[in-house]
Amino acid sequence: MKKPILLLATLLLMGSAAQLRPCDVTVETKAAKDKGRIEVKLCVDRFHRSCPLDIDKTDLKAEGLVIEKRGEWRNVKGSLYEIDLVVRLTGKKAGAITVLRCCPKRGPQEEIVTIEPLSPGKQ
C-alpha cells in the first residue's frame, strides 16, 4: 500500500516542479544586414493562459552587448510572444540578455540567454 502512495506523491511533485517557471524563454540568432550586428528573435511562452502580467511588462537587461534596435512584442499564437532585436557585442566574448518577469502568481522569474559571437562564415 505504501508503494502506490509514494509513487503518486512523487508524480505530483514532479508535475509541480515542472511548472515552477511561469514562462519559457527561447532565443534564435542570425547575422544582421549591418556587419558586426546580430538579429535576435526572443520568444516568451507564458504558461498561464490568463496571465495577469502583460507581455509589455517584460524587462530586458543587456550585459556585454548593446540593444541597438528593439521591436514590439507580438502574439504569435496563444500564449507565445516574440520580439525582434538587433544587438552588437561590446567585446569578442559572448553577451547576455536577462529577461525578467515579475509574475503575481509565481513570483519573479529571471532567465538569462547567451548571445554568442557569430562565426566568420555566418557574418
Describe the secondary-structure layout.
Blueprint: H1 2-18, E1 23-31, E2 37-46, E3 59-63, E4 65-70, E5 74-77, E6 80-89, E7 95-103, E8 107-115
Antiparallel strand pairs: 1-2, 2-6, 3-7, 4-6, 5-6, 7-8
Written account of the structure:
This protein is mainly beta and 123 residues long. The chain has a single domain, classed as Gamma-adaptin ear (GAE) domain (Immunoglobulin-like, Sandwich), CATH 2.60.40. The protein is 14% helix and 50% strand. It contains one helix and eight strands. Strands 1, 2, 4, 5 and 6 form a five-stranded antiparallel β-sheet that branches. Strands 3-7-8 form a three-stranded antiparallel β-sheet, with no helix packed on it. The longest helix is centred in the N-terminal third of the chain and has 17 residues, at 2-18.
Annotation, overall tally of beta strands: 8
Rg for CA atoms: 18 Å
Low-confidence stretches: 13-20
Backbone shape: elongated
Classified by CATH, the class is: Mainly Beta
Question: Nutshell version of this structure?
Answer:
The relative contact order is 0.23. The longest helix is centred in the N-terminal third of the chain and has 17 residues, at 2-18. Helices cover 14% and strands 50% of the residues.
Key terms:
5-stranded antiparallel beta sheet; 1 helix; 14% helix; Immunoglobulin-like; 123 residues; mainly beta; 3-stranded antiparallel beta sheet
